Amino acid sequence: MLLKLGRAGDEGKRGYLRILGKVWSILFLGAMIGFFSSRGVNFFSIMGLQNVLLASTLIMLVAMGETFVVISGGMDISPSYVVGLCGAVGAIIMRNMYAAGHNPASAVVVGFVSALVFSLLPGLLNGVIITKMKVSPFIVTIGTMGIAEGAVFLSNGGVPVRELPPLVANIGNSYVVYHASGHGLSLFRPLGIEGVRSIGILPIPVLMLAVVVVIMHLILSRTRYGQHVYAIGGNVQAAKLSGIPVDRVVIKTYMMASLMYGIAGMVYVLRFASAAPNAGEPLLISSFGAVFIGGASMAGGYGTIGGTVIGALIIAVLQTGLVMLLVSPFFQYIALGCAIILAVFIDQFKAKLIQE
User: Fold this and answer.
1) Which of 56, 62, 164, 59 is nearest to 119 (CA)?
2) Please, what is the end-to-end C-alpha distance for the chain in angstroms?
3) Rounded to whole angstroms, how far apart are CA atoms 259 and 46?
4) CA nearest 347: which of 278, 289, 305, 262?
C-alpha cells in the first residue's frame, strides 16, 4: 500500500513538473514584467505596449519561420543576411520605380510582392540541397547565409538603400486606430481638429504581424502539411513509412521559413524607410531564443506558434526594459544568452520526464 502511495505521489509530482514545463515561459514573462514595472518601467501604458510589440515584430516574424524548421528537425542560420537581401531587393525596386515616375502606391506594392517572391529562392535552395544531396542543414544554411551576405552588399555598394517613396515611411510609422480625448476614434489618420492631439493606438506593422501570426498558427495546427512537419520532426523514418512525402515537405518548410524572412525584411523597410544590408544580423540569436524559450524542442517534433510568440515577447520585454533602465545594451546579449541556456535546460528536463 505504501509503495503504491509512493508511486502515486511520484506520478503527481511528475505531472506538476510537466505542467510547469509547458507554462514556465508565460510565468517567466509575467515575472519579467513585474520586475521591470517595480523599477519604474510602465509596460501597461499605450506607449509601453507599443514599444514592446514593435520591438517584437521583426524577432517574431523570423522566429515563426525558424519554428517550422526546428519542429521538422532542421536548422536555418541563413536569416542573418536573407532578411537584409530581401529588404534590399524590394527597396531597390521601389526606389527605381519611384525615380522613373511611377505611382508611389504601385512602386510600394510591386516592390513588396517582388521581395516576397524572391524570398522563396533561398529557402528552395536550402531545401533542395538538404533533401536531394543529404547535406547537413547547418552547413547548407551557413552557405546560403554567405551567398546572401555577398549579394546584399553587392546590390547597393554596401550602403543602405534610401530615397524610397514617402508612402513607405507613412505606412510603416502610421497607426490603424487613432484616438483623441473627447472626440472618439479615427481609422488610419489622425483627427484633423485644431488644438487636439490624436494618439496612435495600433501601429500598422503590429497589425501586419497579427495577421501573419494567425495564418502561421492555422497552417501549423490545422493543415495536413503542418501535421506532416510534426511527424517528420518526431521520427523521419516512421514518416517515410507512413507515406509522407518527406523531401517535398522539408523543401516547403525551408521555403516557408524564407518567406517569413522576406516579410521581416520588408517590414524593416516600412518602419525605417531604408534597407540595411545587415538588418537580419541581430535577429538570428533573438529568433532562436524566441523559438526555444517558447517551448520548441531542439530534437524536433514539438513546438507551437503561440509558444514562439510568448518567447518573442519575453525578448522584447527584456530589451525594452533594459533600454528604459539605461542599462548598457551589451547586457542584453548576456541576458538573452542566459535565457536561451535556461530554455535548453528545461527542454532536456522535459524530455527526461517524458521518458520516465
Assistant:
1) 62
2) 22
3) 31
4) 289
User: What's the CA angle centered on 28, arms 22 and 30, to 5 degrees?
Assistant: 115
Question: For residues 73 and 301, is the Cβ–Cβ distance under 8 A?
Answer: yes
C-alpha distance from residue 71 to each of 29, 47, 126, 259, 281 (Å): 23, 35, 16, 17, 23
Pick from 157, 87, 154, 149: nearest CA to 116: 87
The C-alpha atoms of residue 234 and residue 299 are separated, in whole angstroms, by 8
Per-residue confidence (pLDDT) for residue 75, from 0 to 100: 95
The residue with cell 519604474 is 40
Domains located in the chain, CATH noted: 28-34+44-355 (1.10.3470)
Quickly count helices (H) and strands (E) in the chain. Answer: 13, 3
d(CA 304, CA 63): 11
CB-based contact 85:147 (threshold 8 Å): no
Residue with cell 495577421: 211
Ordered strands of the 177-180 beta sheet? 184-187, 177-180, 199-200
CA distances, 194 to each of 96, 183, 185 (Å): 38, 12, 16
Reported as a single tens digit per residue, the pLDDT across 81-122 is 999 999 999 999 999 999 999 999 999 999 999 999 999 999
For residue 348, which amino acid is it?
Answer: Q
What pLDDT digit, counting tens, does each position of 284-330 carry?
Answer: 989 998 998 888 888 899 899 999 999 999 999 988 888 888 888 77
Distance CA(268)–CA(279), nearest Å, equals 8
CA-nearest of 159, 138, 143, 137 to 84 is 159
- What's the gap between Cα 1 and its chain centre? 52
How far apart CA 271 and CA 108 sit, in angstroms, is: 13
Locus of grid cell 484616438: 179
Question: Quick check: helix, strand or coil at residue 178?
Answer: strand
Concatenating the DSSP letter of every residue in 208-231 gives HHHHHHHHHHHHHHHSHHHHHHHH
Specify which residues 175 forms β-bridges with.
203
